[in-house]
């Protein structure tokens, strides 16, 4: 009998578990939406190539040691970091450690976080507004084009949005359960979000304070106490990483890439903080050319110029720099040199990675940004008005009194307003940063559509908001579509008018509207057609761009390749360097990380990017450089990237004392691409790749690559190369000279033998 009791207990536990499992009510619409999200974010991701190889190089390096992992070192030797904090890269590195370094493995965390964000949207809305608004909000989040594009890359943005939503989730839980510990968790998660992309996370911080203050039914003294304690948790989790960097002796850690003073805190509040708003370049205070003042005549869509040339009116960006370097001589195209991760030719934005439209309250509606994020923005804004008055409550003394639903609306309005304001006035950001708006737009549009249909059916004084929303949104979307599909744009506008007319008229002439709700449903379906197609384009194209975007030009004949944002390796140069590296710590040194990244990804060896991402970081002095050369730790320097103020003295010393190395191809007697650089005529300059990390490198999969060229594969040996067509071409910089733009392969460069200096 004693032996049967444990068996009976185990059987009862199993029965109870199965009973609880069966009692769970699944929302099959939510399951379908999550499956759709998984398809959009993950399908064809094996075409990712090296994804954004600026970050992929860091992931390769971070797998080498815990020191590199903690500090987010760009190179295996721990010389310099990437210009972002490490949290997002930690997840990618863990994935790479488990599955190996592949394009899909470094993107996998972004995919999972993207799907997780869709679920969190559903959960946050469902608790106060019910299942139907929650389903709509989750669907809108899933089908936001820039959400799809961002979730398919190893950039940080999908990770950032997930942690922000997770922070909101626990803050909401603190309100619903009236338990303070959840508030602490929520604000701690906000601190972690800061360490994903720094001050960008704090744009929604006022919304959390406002929401908790309005939504909790406790005295103002307790509210103040709770928020004060939560702020302590926020401060701890915000500062724990940057302080650990700044308190570590600089000799024992990598240089903090992107900073002027080798400080993580200065990086957060300077380059990744105020300078984003003001458009100033690090170290000089100069403004980016074209920021916030681009012409209203832009290119056709917000997609990379994969097969389409960018607008002639696109602003001229700095020479691959977020700092004070001179503009490129490329006709205003921020190509491979200028967009992090190579970006696509024009960096994934209509007219460029830096083409963000004209600053002002309507910037987000303009064609430079709108086709990525603003398809449902009109519905979201009008939906906020509709839902605020729909949820007024029958026993309210004043029209502005707060109900539980209205308190939630203040949360999402508190998210939307500061982020909308930032993008309306900021002078420097990439279009794909607008994913920050996606949660607020999705929730307000989802709840708003639900309440507008309810008000229309009930013939309330707000019933006209539904037809106005459908008509206005149809007109806006037709304008976005027009540049790519003129006939379809007119059809979309005509259908919008045809559906809106009965929506305007029926409340006045019909006694019963419930049986006529098909018109409202048709309107909702209509306004989702165009954004759904835009969202499908990155998935169909298999894109994983350094500068993510969505749109029809991804599907052009020259734009079917994945892996945009990857540089190329000069095979002849690499073989020579590996043969002669000897015991030196670095394979070679170069000016910037865009030139170095593909070689790190290829070999897993240390390549010194002296000036960081864009060649202007003051990461090493001439004295320190000379010491490395004298000790034999550094034998070669390759002049192919961007020389800036950070390393000009070193480059001058190298040119004065080192010997140039002329390599010849192993298959023919002609001199390979590694020769003394000469100025080229812009009319005969080779095409720049749409996704080149090092300027001037040929596109992935191009028909006739220069002699000795190959795609990176070393550390990613099992990675599947893009099997589709190349990622289009932009106009290469004409007038490229040694040490400016031009990478190993497509443009000429110069290899210097440093070991000869102290022989």
TrEMBL record:
InterPro entries: LipidA_mod_glycosyltrf_83, RgtA/B/C-like, YkcA/B-like_C. It is found in: Cell membrane. It comes from Companilactobacillus keshanensis. Residues 282-344, 664-759 are annotated as: Disordered. Residues 290-308, 665-717 have a biased composition (Low complexity). It comes from the Bacteria. Keywords: Cell membrane, Glycosyltransferase, Membrane, Transferase, Transmembrane, Transmembrane helix. The keyword Membrane applies. Residues 83-241 form the Glycosyltransferase RgtA/B/C/D-like domain. The chain crosses the membrane at residues 28-46, 101-125, 158-176, 182-212, 224-244, 373-391, 411-429, 435-453, 465-482, 488-506, 518-536. Residues 573-657 form the Putative mannosyltransferase YkcA/B-like C-terminal domain. It is a multi-pass membrane protein. This is Glycosyltransferase family 39 protein. Residues 332-344, 731-748 have a biased composition (Gly residues).
